[in-house]
Amino acid sequence: MTSPAPAAVPPQLNGPALPQALGSARAGGTPIAPGPAADEGLARRLRALACTAPLHDLDARKANLAGEYGGYAMAEVALAAIDLVTLNMDFDTGADHEQIVARLLPRVAAQEPHRSAAEHERVARWVLENLINVGSVDRGFRAVYGTFGTDGTYVRRDYDFKLIEEVPGHGGTVFLRTTDEAVNVLVGALDTDVTSAQIAAEVKLEVLISRGRLADAQLAAEQARYRTVQYAETLRKTLDATRRNVRAVDWLRTVPDMIAEALDHVADRYRHENAILTNIRKARDEAEEPENKRRAAELVDIVKDCIRRHTQLQSRLLEAGPLFRAEQDRQAFAPPAARAGLDLYGQLLAPVLPLPLEQAGRVTDAFFTHGTGLRTPVSVRVGDLVEMLLTPPAEREHLGAEMPEPDLIATPDDSRFSEEQLASAMELLDLPADAPRRLSGLLADARRRDPELPYLVALLAVHAASPSVGTAYRQGEQTLLFAVDDGTQLDDIEFGGADLIVGKALLDAAGMAADRAEAT
Asked: How many CB atoms lie within 10 A of CB 481?
């Protein structure tokens, strides 16, 4: 994105302000606009500086966190997070968010070992979320820098980039992947050609191994592995763009040339890395110091991982041609895309509001008539009828699909009272029809039988305080338990309230009278 230089310099977003003195078109009346090559070199350095700005911004903003976080080196944790995501992502998948947080915890805890584990986890998550730039619209960073055009005019440019991005995976999962800018931050370069950088890194690795500088060789091997990951990421983005729109990728010249070059690159690197691996094993076997043996063993693992990644990259390169042809067939014969949707506010509501009611009603009636969907025709067309009659019936199972056997689990008996306690309570409440009793006496008798029984008796008595005579009579009940409050205070050590009069009544004429009363 480009825009003419405004009179006032806009604020720099997501990072410290880039040098603005370089943007002066003239100094003392003399043009100082550099040549195209020098200006492009300056732009590359400014973009490299912009990629590191979010990491420095972490240490600047850690003071805003609630608590004392001054002892944490946030930029160091951020570089470790980028490293972990880069090495844990594969060609098709990325790194797991929780796994990266778990692997960051030892490094965070080593900086402030006396702090709590919850604070260490908060720091790790805060750093990772800021590298993803959670909270922004597109979860990206932007830096503004200036260059000179061919006519000497100073032009401001927006540089948009990401460090770690979230990509969807299988089954609705979300993975983390590092971008080219993040890998460039790791290896200390920007916009470097992947193939030449890979060759240079491996030549440097071979020289260091032959000279016995295993500590420097390990760093060079890690940089070579980062370049391998970056090369695979370039191919993955090309294939993803092909799946979305095959016309957006130049499969006539650019991609075939890239695939042929990549296959040659993989073959050369495979031979080169196997030779390096042989030299490392020799250095490991001949080393006498334990530190050199350990370094050599780590180098063996790193180079083996590079060989594995190159093998995987080769398999993807061989699948690129068939994938292009399959996507070309799929997209060429795909149904046409749906028309653009209607802007209800801009195209309907805003123009209709100033109109008179009569004119606006015609517009809305026409819209809703056509926008409410298809209507059933009043008569069947002959063509539809012939097609329905000639369509063979669908085969169906006579009894339908087989139902799976349900996995039944016995429901545990979680009732408070047992059957014996319920029978004992009902026995106490089985009173003669002409001899009601007070609740206090029933509670005393229940307490002598069982300490838990008074509560059940009280529940049954309260339930009987509002009986439905008509319902009980219609269901065939001959007797009905009832309770009446006569205003006497309940004198009991466990319960308080009214001392109800509990008794039973025969449902004969009284029940039929209640039926008539309910009907009335």
From this structure: 19
